[in-house]
């Protein structure tokens, strides 16, 4: 046991140094930001609650310094100094700052209100930005996002078309992005569409590639800064609660201070003796841009297009007889087994309708849940930690676009399979 303690002692010591360094970095963040908050309030008090807390913090700092100085006597520890002391200090400072501006921290008091992360309003339906415009329908934030997605996809396509030729221009600026666009399209066509669709790949690929690129652009653009965070501040009509706001020049920002409830606001008197007849009205943010795939109108519309084109290719391959697989009345002449075939054809029709629901709700559910998760994590810890979930959402956005495209290709291949089988049988006979 003594030998084990002697062997593990240095590693335990280094781990303790790293842990304490992280704690000191977090304490420094709270101390600095708290003191800055006091300066903004014009107060001279320190952030620490008591002299006992100040003594405890100083003792921890002294212990970390003593351990580091003792460890530096051994040259083997020097190369670990940056990793175990400097990096934990920076990490602790970032985490401390994140916690300070999260829901568990006090935030920076600005104008008497805590300025820190707030929980966004979670709504399934898109928020209108204007009054009725198109046939009585307003312009929504997902419509604006759809226009941006279309412009990005079309712009990359046009740039790629202009660069097509035996000697493309040298890569610079947007050329790198266009090269990635060309590589992606070529890889999908050569390694996927040709394998699944066979000789029909050339005709079907523009449809499935457009679906993939549009869904991918919609999912990834929804993660850009500005989506769900920049918009217009409106009274919280129809929403529970709401937040107080502060005005900083031309900008209006939500604070973490909730609006007073009606029971708390009514019946009280102001300091000047005036009756407090109305409640402090809360405000919410209506973002100018919202991730397109979090709108059921988009996912259902795209699903309807995909399933409709599956029927189009089925009719092109099999003719009008393609629809007999949905309502096979001819099978009723074959007795009991014919009735079974007729019922199976009805199930085929139900499955086509289910494809629309499967397409739309799979995409909507995954992307909407991801954005809710990001909003909650930013509400808890605004810095560093949400980056992990950002990476996860980038992967989920790519996978969902790939699944939508892949299922469309598979359904088209199945819809045209009867024609291929009949053609093959006729050829061999």
Automatic annotation (TrEMBL):
The chain crosses the membrane at residues 12-33, 45-72, 84-104, 142-161, 204-224, 296-315, 335-351, 363-388, 394-415. One of its GO terms (molecular function) is proton-transporting ATP synthase activity, rotational mechanism. It comes from the Bacteria. It is a multi-pass membrane protein. The keyword Transmembrane helix applies. GO terms for cellular component: plasma membrane; proton-transporting ATP synthase complex. Key component of the proton channel; it plays a direct role in the translocation of protons across the membrane. It is found in: Cell membrane; Membrane. GO terms for biological process: proton motive force-driven plasma membrane ATP synthesis. Belongs to the ATPase A chain family. The lineage of its organism: Bacteria, Bacillati, Chloroflexota, Thermoflexia, Thermoflexales. Keywords: ATP synthesis, Cell membrane, CF(0), Hydrogen ion transport, Ion transport, Membrane, Transmembrane, Transmembrane helix, Transport. The gene is atpB. This is ATP synthase subunit a. It comes from Candidatus Thermoflexus japonica.
């Amino acid at each position: 046991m003594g030998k084990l303690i002697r062997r593990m002692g240095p590693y335990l010591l280094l781990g303790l140094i790293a842990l304490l360094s992280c704690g000191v970095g977090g304490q420094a963040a709270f101390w600095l930001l708290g003191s800055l908050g006091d300066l903004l309030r014009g107060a001279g008090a320190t952030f620490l609650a008591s002299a006992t807390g100040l003594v405890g913090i100083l003792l921890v700092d002294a212990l970390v310094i003593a351990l580091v100085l003792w460890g530096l006597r051994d040259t083997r520890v020097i190369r670990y100094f940056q990793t175990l002391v400097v990096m934990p200090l920076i990490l602790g400072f970032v985490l401390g700052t994140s916690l300070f501006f999260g829901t568990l921290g006090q935030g920076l008091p600005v104008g008497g209100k805590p300025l820190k992360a707030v929980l966004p309003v979670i709504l399934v339906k898109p928020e209108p930005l204007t009054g009725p415009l198109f046939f009585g329908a307003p312009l929504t934030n997902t419509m604006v996002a759809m226009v941006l997605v279309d412009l990005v996809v079309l712009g990359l396509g046009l740039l790629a078309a202009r660069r097509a030729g035996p000697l493309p221009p040298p890569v610079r600026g947007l050329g790198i992005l266009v090269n990635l666009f060309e590589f992606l399209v070529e890889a999908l066509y050569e390694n996927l569409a040709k394998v699944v669709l066979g000789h029909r790949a050339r005709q079907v690929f523009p449809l499935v590639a457009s679906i993939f690129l549009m869904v991918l652009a919609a999912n990834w653009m929804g993660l850009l800064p500005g989506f769900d965070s920049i918009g217009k501040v409106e009274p919280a009509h129809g929403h529970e609660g709401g937040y107080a706001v502060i005005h900083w020049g031309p900008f209006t920002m939500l604070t973490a201070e909730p609006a007073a409830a009606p029971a708390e606001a009514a019946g009280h008197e102001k300091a000047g003796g005036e009756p407090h007849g109305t409640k402090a009205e809360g405000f919410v943010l209506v973002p100018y841009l919202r991730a397109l795939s979090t709108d059921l109108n988009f996912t259902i519309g795209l699903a309807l297009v995909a399933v409709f084109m599956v029927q189009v290719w089925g009719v092109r391959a099999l003719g009008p007889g393609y629809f007999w697989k949905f309502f096979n009345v001819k099978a009723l002449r074959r007795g009991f087994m014919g009735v079974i075939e007729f019922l199976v054809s009805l199930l085929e029709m139900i499955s086509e309708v289910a494809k629309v629901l499967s397409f739309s709700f799979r995409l909507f559910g995954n992307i909407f849940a991801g954005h809710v998760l990001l909003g909650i994590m930013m509400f808890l810890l605004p810095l560093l930690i949400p980056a992990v979930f950002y990476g996860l959402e980038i992967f989920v956005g790519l996978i969902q676009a790939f699944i939508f495209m892949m299922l469309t290709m598979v359904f088209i291949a199945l819809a045209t399979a009867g024609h291929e089988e009949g053609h093959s049988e006729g050829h061999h006979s």
